[in-house]
Design a protein that fits this description.
Helix content: 40-55%
Radius of gyration: 41 Å
Largest sheet: 4 strands, antiparallel
Shape: flat
Number of strands: 7
Strand content: 5-15%
Length: about 300
């Protein structure tokens, strides 16, 4: 310890300075939240308002995930690989047989599969053609006796990563996906029967577009992407200057069903009429004796003759 360095545990030590910085960041975040919470308009708040609206039964609020969310299987594989490497490095004899290169090769296979999903649009036809092509390649290699030499080439791809390295990969990927979800709190799209609301900011910066000025389409052509439960909701606007909007959403089957219900309806606000309470019934008008109509008397009928009738 140098002469100018503060003693460990004092108010001016490096550890205490780091604590001051952390407390300052937390305090600044709390103050910012208290000042801006009245002006923030988040996706969760809009969902709550639409749910409480008695005039709306069908609505949909979505946001676009980052394409890196498709690497969730790779991140889960990294967590499992980190656990396996930590057990291998623990020194227990039961985990001594874990081969780090085998773990690295399996993790790389999952990563390569995710890369194909995220980078290319692979339909069922392309997938089937690719599998048939690989089958013909292996058959041709078998005829010339080159299957095993071809597979031995992949041994050079085996690599070993420590448990900390796998854990760091998982944390970086989770942070990227978390930032995408946080951005989705302020950049989202709300579908209602009469209009679409495009929100792009933490305040009331939304733009409403009538239902006649846009069209929607659900794209699930990427088969591998669909296997993970993801798809795209595409919005095309009548205004040619406005570029189309594509949103990568999870649980696309549920979202597509809700969007179909929203687009199939048109909301109309009827005026609320208040029922008029019935008043007292009017009494019949009282009539006097002079007001009653006189009875109609029949004409007198002459009496028949009393003498005998003369015969003719």
């Amino acid at each position: 310890m140098t002469a100018n360095a503060a003693p460990q545990g004092s108010w001016g030590s490096n550890g205490m300075i780091a604590l001051y910085i952390a407390l300052g960041v937390v305090l600044a975040g709390v103050v910012a939240w208290l000042l801006l919470r009245r002006t923030l308009r988040t996706r969760l708040g809009v969902q709550k308002n639409l749910r409480l609206d008695p005039d709306l039964n069908d609505w949909l609020v979505v946001f676009g995930w980052t394409p890196k969310v498709l690497y969730v299987p790779t991140l889960l594989a990294a967590v499992l690989a980190a656990l396996a490497m930590f057990l291998h490095e623990s020194g227990w004899s039961i985990f001594a047989g874990i081969n780090p290169k085998t773990v690295g090769g399996l993790w790389f296979a999952v990563f390569f599969f995710n890369y194909l999903i995220e980078e290319y649009d692979i339909s069922i036809r392309v997938l089937l053609l690719g599998m048939v092509g690989i089958g013909f390649l292996l058959l041709w290699l078998h005829l010339i006796g080159g299957v095993l030499p071809f597979l031995r080439l992949f041994r050079h791809l085996a690599f070993s990563i420590s448990g900390t390295g796998y854990l760091l990969i998982a944390l970086i990927g989770a942070l990227t996906i978390g930032l995408s979800w946080l951005r989705g709190l302020f950049h989202y799209v709300a579908f209602t029967p009469n209009y679409i609301n495009l929100q792009a900011g933490p305040a009331e910066a939304g733009e409403q577009i009538g239902r006649e000025d846009f069209s929607t389409r659900v794209d699930t052509s990427d088969f591998l992407e669909r296997l993970l439960g993801f798809g795209r909701i595409c919005v095309t606007f009548k205004e040619k200057a406005r570029p189309p909007l594509g949103l990568l959403v999870w649980r696309v089957d549920k979202k597509a069903e809700m969007l179909e219900k929203v687009r199939a309806k048109y909301a109309i606000d009827y005026p609320q009429h208040t029922a008029t309470p019935p008043g007292p019934r009017a009494k019949p008008e009282e009539r006097g004796p002079s007001d009653e109509p006189a009875p109609i008397s029949a004409a007198p009928v002459p009496p028949p003759p009393s003498g005998p009738m003369e015969a003719r």
